[in-house]
Each structure stands twice: as C-alpha cells, then as structure tokens.
Design goal:
Shape: globular
Number of helices: 3
Distance between the termini: 17 Å
Largest sheet: 5 strands, mixed
Structural class: alpha+beta
Oligomer: single chain
Number of domains: 1
Number of strands: 7
Radius of gyration: 14 Å
CATH superfamily: Nucleoside Triphosphate Pyrophosphohydrolase
Strand content: 25-35%
C-alpha cells in the first residue's frame, strides 16, 4: 500500500480484473522475498519504487486471505499488506490494460468505509495503519 503519511492518504488503483479499488500489489515469484516483491510490483504498477515506511518493519502490517470475485472468481488470495512511503504529488504511470485509474484517498474516509467497491479487508487495514502512523506528518 502506497501511503503519504503526512497527507494521511493512500493510493488505490481501479483494478480491471478484480472490479475493485485495491492497493497496488502482485504475486510473489518463486524464490522471491515478499518485501522485494513490494518494490518490484510498485515499480511495475505505478512507475516508481517506494521504500517501506520508516518505523514499520520489513514484515507485512496486515495479512488476509479471501476467495476472489470479479472477472477471475474462485481462487484464494493470501495478501501481505506492506506499507510503502510515497508522496502523493509524485506522478503515477499506470498500465491501462490492468487499471482503469488511480486515486489518492484520505485514510480517514476509508477507515469507516462501506467495503463495497473496495477490497473487503481495506477498512480494517486502514484502522490498523492509522494506529501505527498516528500523527505522522
């Protein structure tokens, strides 16, 4: 998840296949360290690599499992939610074949959000993230 802690916001992408607003991400390649996957996928999906947010370890902040829906239903996704430090003013270069668009969302608006249209675990993740970053900025 790309987060601008100072602006208390995160970047979500409108994922064509999933039909949801999701954090950037992807699949861990065989033999790849999951933290390295974060850097690689970030570069592939938004055009730049972002470091893990200072003060959070190289371990994921959140781990979830769910059966997917959308256009590719029925497989189980295990998601490792890492937090990357980003500046919302930095230009994003999306692959239009994978994403309809991207938007920076206020963390405060996502925490109590109805999960329709988003990853259903997003509100719980945002609440945990807000507890970790507190008043950074």
């Amino acid at each position: 998840m790309l987060v601008d802690a100072g602006a208390r916001s995160c970047l979500l992408v409108d994922h064509r296949l999933a039909g949801l607003w999701l954090p950037t991400g992807g699949h861990v390649e065989p033999g790849e360290d999951p933290a390295a996957t974060v850097t690689r996928e970030c570069r592939e999906e938004v055009g730049f690599a972002a470091p893990l947010l200072a003060g959070l370890s190289s371990q994921p902040l959140f781990v979830t499992q769910r059966v997917t829906g959308g256009l590719d239903p029925g497989h189980v996704d295990v998601s490792l939610w890492y937090v990357c430090d980003a500046d919302r003013r930095r230009p994003v270069e999306l692959d239009p074949r994978e994403f309809r668009g991207a938007r920076w969302w206020s963390l405060d608006e996502l925490a109590p959000a109805d999960a329709r249209g988003f990853d259903p675990n997003l509100p719980r993740f945002v609440v945990k993230l807000l507890g970790e970053i507190g008043g950074r900025g």
